[in-house]
Design goal:
Chain lengths: 444, 352
């Protein structure tokens, strides 16, 4: 039976790593988490995770599971983020979460593979680069709006020590629209341009890896590494053609090229350390996560315009702003969580969960032209877990139902401008985010 | 409903799990299909509405009838309406203008029109202060600026003959009584060509008076003086001059668009989104024959910083800016009357 499971797992893992279009282990999970149980515990599960959410929190935890698990559910996060009291109407983040976890044994060691999924039900992804001077909640702009699929595996190296890793595949977009023909500057209707489009979706990969050590009967230690990841969106228009005036060609083969360079969906490199304590009726854990926001590139477009020198003599280019470095700094995120068994009967088990997160903002003051808004965050979460044993014949294994609510409070922050004539001026930002998550879990 | 036994053919070994005979991947696939069916590519949104809006730019001109030519106040044949100054009076908006009659020998005077619909349409212009009521004036009176203190309206105005700035008060804002002597007359070197276009704000318990001063060559600058409650004046010097301290988009020093002088300032005190006091100034800048409306701001009323996208409105005359009913109104003088532009995008970020 275990051999069959392992074979299945290997096949699915191979399929996942070769064929799926987009894989990620970070966003929007960085923002709201993965899995109702883990979110309820404040995400402080690096040392305790043993379900599908291990794809994000610590792939090594996959090998802790004893049974095949199938999870699916829904998460909804509703932000109210304001500047000067005006709600910016930042989009809600919502979608399906779930996945499958397939444990087995190989050479008498525990192994597991898993597939985790966050599938937004409004948009698959958003790539948007706003002007750097436009105020925006930088971490809630593109980040929560993305399809996320994680494929991971784990293996027990020695008893009590497991390693796990997952790969992520995404695509950079680099494209150029080429136009050729004749451009008439006096009679536009006589302009004839033929177009061709050349776009590459180049694959990029990044790693998530973890270690989990059952250091004693109750003590659990975990470390997770999530590599940096960023998507580029480079688009350009190139015009090569003859310049005409009233139908008469005045210049042949002049060129005009506009390129925009954007970095979207940046997810910083992270290392999470977790320590947990497991008792029969309860468990608790603490996590500290180092997040390398200092490598955050400018989330604004850089524009390059290249004019043929013959065109440059008759046309002036407007000045283009060069995106400034956002100068974010690295942060430490603190997480705490716990789970308590409230009731256990022959058929039903009831668990309560709670968690807390303190995430300082990586964004500096914004006294100049940029307006990358981000605030310190406190998050509290509460959850309830129900597990039904041998509920109905259809599901001979335990069936779990996890319900979680979370409130993220963004501490108000005043942004003061050095220049009193700044186009945006001083402003105050504040907000909160409610989220709810419901997951079902089937064990087989 | 999920299939209990998976697909009909080609089942992989994965389907034979401990699940009791139906395929786990079938359930996952069904869940994925369900999710995909509910998905879309999304639409608008994303959190960029209700952005902070300082009302500096851009203003959309209010469309008026063909007869009005887009003007909210239309000048009579041959006359000119100049130097608008808008204030909120009760629930309405009062617009004071300099009315310069066409007939030779008639002197300019200050007239007022009132709007009851948020500053869009105005009633008839009525005289608010005429030169005949000002004993020290031989020419016309012009360039009104108003401020209300404890229910009393104070008006600063200018005279071209003799050059000077006067002071008048009113209980209702309709008719004003002037002081018998001018408040400020040219004394300093930079004032030898005359003083005009006053703009007054209440600063603590005193008034800050901004005005256009011209030197003997006629070059205009913006100067500032403090006016005490008893009418005593203390000059603080030139606060803005043309062709100096301009910056480009990167904040680096750059050639100024107002090389040949600045004039006609209107200063308003505002409170920023964080509660800081901001002095806002719209002013006219000149370069050769070109004239445009610029914006500058200050934290202390003395040191001013220009808006880096100046001019905000090319070809405009003297202007007045008012925040009313959660939108910014900008009135500016133009040939044949007074134009109105409205900026009501998103969240107004300064209160004044």
């Amino acid at each position: 039976m275990h051999a069959a499971k392992t074979a299945c797992a290997a096949l699915l893992g191979l399929f996942a790593s070769l064929g799926l279009p987009a894989l990620a282990a970070a966003n929007p999970l960085d923002a709201f988490g993965l899995g109702a149980r883990s979110i309820a515990m404040g995400g402080a599960v690096t040392s305790l995770v043993d379900d599908v959410s291990a794809n994000y929190y610590n792939p090594a935890g996959l090998a802790r599971s004893e049974r095949l698990q199938l999870e699916f559910g829904y998460i909804y996060a509703d932000p109210t983020l304001t500047i000067n009291g005006g709600d910016l109407n930042v989009d809600a983040s919502r979608g399906f979460q779930g996945g499958v976890l397939m444990p087995g044994r190989l050479l008498d060691r525990r192994v597991a593979v898993s597939l985790g999924l966050h599938l937004p039900d409004e948009r698959v992804a958003r790539l948007r680069a706003l002007p750097q001077s436009q105020p925006r909640f930088t971490l809630y702009d593109n980040r929560p709006q993305r399809l996320t699929i994680s494929a991971s595996g784990a293996v027990e190296i020695v008893e009590g020590l497991t390693l796990g890793a997952g790969l992520t595949f995404l695509a950079n977009t680099v494209g150029t629209l080429s136009l050729g023909g004749q451009l008439d500057i006096a009679q536009v209707e006589q302009t004839t341009l033929l177009s061709s489009l050349d776009v590459d979706l180049a694959a990029i990969r990044y790693l998530t890896a973890g270690v989990l050590w059952e250091a004693g009967e109750h003590l659990r230690l975990g470390v997770t590494f999530r590599d940096e990841f960023k998507l580029r969106l480079d688009l350009g228009v190139e015009v090569i053609g003859d310049l005409a005036f009233n139908g008469n060609v005045v210049q042949e083969d002049v060129t005009f090229k506009v390129m925009t360079y954007n970095v979207n969906l940046f997810s910083p490199r992270q290392v999470a350390f977790g320590v947990g304590w497991e008792e029969e009726r309860w468990q608790a854990s603490l996590d500290v996560t180092w997040v390398q926001w200092s490598r955050f590139p400018p989330p604004a477009s850089r524009i390059e315009v290249t004019l043929d020198e013959r065109l440059a003599s008759i046309a002036a280019l407007p000045p283009f702003e060069v995106p400034l470095s956002p100068a974010f700094h690295d942060i430490l995120v603190l997480r705490a969580g716990g789970e308590l068994q409230l009731y256990r009967g022959p058929v039903l088990e009831v668990l309560s969960r709670a968690g807390y997160v303190w995430e300082p903002s990586p964004a500096p003051e914004q006294p100049g032209i940029t307006n990358y808004v981000d605030l310190d965050k406190h998050a509290v979460s509460l959850g309830l877990g129900l597990t039904l044993e041998e509920w109905i014949d259809l599901f001979p294994g335990p069936v779990g139902l996890d319900l979680t609510g979370q409130l993220i409070h963004l501490r108000p922050r005043a942004y003061l401008k050095d220049d009193p004539a700044d186009p945006v001026g001083d402003f105050e930002a504040r907000g909160h985010i409610w989220s709810g998550s419901l997951m079902t879990r089937f064990h087989f | 409903m999920l299939p209990r036994h998976g697909g009909s053919r080609g089942r992989s070994s994965c389907e034979r799990s401990d699940a009791g005979g139906y395929g786990a991947e079938g359930v996952l696939l069904a869940a994925l299909l369900l999710a995909a069916a509910c998905s879309s590519l999304g639409g608008d949104g994303g959190g960029d509405s209700n952005l902070p809006n300082r009302g500096i730019a851009a203003y959309a001109p209010v469309e008026r009838g063909e007869e009005a030519g887009g003007r909210v106040l239309v000048a009579a044949q041959g006359e000119a309406l100049e130097a608008p100054s808008a204030v909120a009076q009760g629930p309405g908006v009062a617009l004071y203008v300099t009315r310069r009659p066409a007939a030779a020998g008639e002197r300019a005077f200050i007239a007022r029109a009132v709007s009851e619909d948020g500053g869009i349409t105005f009633g008839a212009l009525e005289p608010a202060l005429t030169p005949a009521e000002v004993p020290w004036v031989r020419g016309g009176v012009e360039g009104a600026s108003l401020v209300e203190v404890d229910g009393v309206w104070r008006m600063a105005f200018a005279s071209d003959d003799p050059p000077g700035i006067g002071w008048a008060t009113s209980a209702d804002g309709a008719r004003f009584e002037p002081l018998e002597a001018p408040l400020l007359t040219p004394q300093e070197p930079w004032e030898q060509g005359g003083v005009s276009a006053p703009s007054v704000v209440l600063e603590g318990g005193r008034f800050a008076l901004y005005y256009t001063a011209r030197d003997a060559s006629g070059r205009a600058v913006i100067a500032r003086a403090l006016v005490g409650t008893e009418g005593e004046v203390r000059r603080e010097g030139v606060v803005l001059e043309g062709g100096a301290a301009c910056v480009d988009l990167e904040g680096a020093e750059a050639p100024c668009w107002d090389m040949d002088g600045v004039e006609g300032a209107e200063v308003r005190l505002a409170r920023s989104g964080t509660g800081r006091t901001v002095y806002r100034m719209f002013y006219l800048g000149r370069q050769g024959r070109a004239v445009g409306l610029g914006f500058a701001a200050s934290s202390d009323g003395l040191t001013w910083s220009r808006y880096r996208y100046n001019p905000t409105l090319e070809g405009a005359g003297e202007a007045s800016n008012l925040l009313h009913s959660e939108r910014y109104l900008l009135y500016w003088a133009t040939q044949g009357g007074v134009m109105l532009g409205i900026n009501d995008r998103g969240q107004v970020s300064e209160v004044f």
